[in-house]
Automatic annotation (TrEMBL):
Species, as recorded: Micrurus spixii
Name of the molecule in the record: CRAL-TRIO domain-containing protein
GO cellular component: cytoplasm
Matching SMART domains: SEC14
InterPro entries registered for this protein in UniProt: CRAL-TRIO_dom, CRAL-TRIO_dom_sf, SEC14/CRAL-TRIO_domain
């Protein structure tokens, strides 16, 4: 609706989306937020791999602002959108969605620190509001026993559509991912 479009335009202006790809995140974010684009799925959609479990949320939030984290995630989404557009031209078909893989190995109580959870909820809300329908699948791998607790803290922010795209893979995650992503990628 019009209100959503207006809010999206405000976010794009606030994030300086025309220059977001040139923006450099603070060193702590560049150095310690592990992840990136790692290829394409079998349909040509970009795949992004993010390592969540090894993050030190308290250390990172004391070293960089919440706005820096939001801007970095916005930048990541914009980069994936550009990559999808390039794939569309390369493959001669419209590529509009991406695959996300979240690696939760090492997830612990430190990740449930309220200020960090609040930032993560804000990042998820930003993704839901500004990049709707761009998620094809969200794979969760190496999820420890603590994962359901962490998920319950953030699932209320996810749309029903996004929750349906969440796929939690078990011990055979490598084989399961090969159904979606060629091993050569």
């Amino acid at each position: 609706s019009e209100a959503m479009l207006r809010k999206h335009a405000q976010v794009r202006k606030y994030m300086d989306s025309d220059h977001i790809q040139e923006w450099e995140a603070p060193e702590v974010i560049q150095k310690y937020m592990a992840g990136g684009t790692c290829g394409f799925d079998r349909d040509g959609c970009p795949v992004r791999y993010e390592i969540i479990g090894t993050l030190d949320p308290k250390g990172m939030l004391f070293s960089a602002s919440k706005q820096d984290f939001l801007k970095k995630k916005f930048q990541d989404c914009e980069i994936m959108k550009v990559l999808a557009d390039k794939q569309s031209k390369k493959q001669g078909k419209k590529i509009e969605t991406i695959i996300m893989i979240y690696d939760f190995e090492g997830l612990g109580l430190k990740h449930l620190w309220k200020p960090a959870v609040d930032v993560y909820i804000e990042i998820l809300a930003m993704f839901e509001e500004n990049f709707p329908e761009s998620l094809k699948h969200l794979f969760v791998i190496k999820a420890p026993k603590l994962f359901p607790i962490a998920y319950n803290m953030v699932k209320h922010i996810l749309s029903e559509d996004t929750r349906k795209k969440l796929i939690i893979l078990g011990a055979n995650w490598k084989e399961d991912l090969q159904k979606y992503i060629d091993p050569s990628e």
